[in-house]
Amino acid sequence: MSKAKNILFNFKRYWFLMTQLISRDFKVKYKRSVLGVLWSLLNPILMMAVMAVVFSQMFKFKVEGINYLVYLMTGLIMWNYFAQASNMAMSSVVENFTLINKVYIPKYIFPIAKCLFIGIDFCLTLIPWLGIIALSYVGLGEYTCHFNINYIVLPYIFICMFLFTCGIGLLISCLSVFLRDVFHIYGIALTLWNYLTPIFYSIEILPKKLQFLMQFNPMYQFIDSARLIVLYNKMPSLATLGIIGAIAVVTLLIGSFVFKKKQDMFIYYV
Q1: CA neighbor of 167 nearest in space, from 159, 177, 156
Q2: Which of 74, 99, 100, 149 is the most buried (most CB within 10 A)?
């Protein structure tokens, strides 16, 4: 309990620093950009348009009985958040070595700040996502998606995904300090993980054995739970909600444990 209080105290004490780190990332990302933060709204729309043309028109991907555009965009925005946040968190400690070397700062602030920064972008992408769902009422896509009461569970799913991403971010940011090969290895792993997650295709096209193994893919669990609500108007089962909550908490605890155990040695390797 005392450790939890200490972490909460540090978050409160260093909250100003975290907001400054997030603000710096925003300024760097949108520096000399005419549209600025509007790219957070336009990017998922343009990405979805390209992917929709490629997969639905050229490769003829579709999922029977549901709106493929919404299916695709739901997977894209959730996967993009995880990939971008974890990738930026991985290099956060190494990139801020100068600051770490000068003053004492809880080092977990850096990967968490990256996850929060991309999280703000993620929240902005929800606007065009909800807009596309609304446009399905007037003929965008073959099938209509319906807003329903089950949407109240979406924040829980997104928070679980955030906690999972923070856990992965803490773990790989720690590993990358000691082994710089992690930067290259994780990029390859993300690409493989991307193709092994049903983002643009349906799990139904996979053999039964692979469908079973997909249940152990955390990102599939998060994405599938959101799709169940948005596309099928169904509430994920309590067991599923419990599983994704457990995945998020366990991953965060493992990442936090490894990071805390090794952080005092960072200064010798960064």
Answers
A1: 159
A2: 74
**Residue 27 in domain:** no
Which pair of tokens denotes residue 154?
């979406």
Residue 113, domain member (yes or no): yes
Q: Tokens 């948005």 identify what position? A: 230
Q: How far apart are the C-alpha atoms of 227 and 78, rounded to whole Å?
A: 11
For 193-212, write each residue's pLDDT tens digit: 998 999 888 888 888 888 88
pLDDT attached to residue 270: 64
The pTM of this model reads: 0.88
pLDDT tens sequence across 80-132: 999 999 999 998 888 888 777 777 778 888 899 999 989 988 988 898 888 88
Residue owning tokens 């609304």: 134
First-last CA distance in the chain: 31
Phi-psi region of 5 (alpha: psi -120 to 50; beta: other; left: phi over 0): alpha
231 within domain boundaries: yes
Quote the number of domains for the chain. Answer: 1
One-letter amino acid at 223 equals: I
Dihedral sign for Cα atoms in the order 83, 159, 166, 257? negative
User: Residue 143 belongs to what domain range?
Assistant: 35-268
Is 8 part of a structural domain of the chain?
Answer: no
Q: What is the pLDDT of residue 255?
A: 94
Residues of the chain with pLDDT under 50: 1
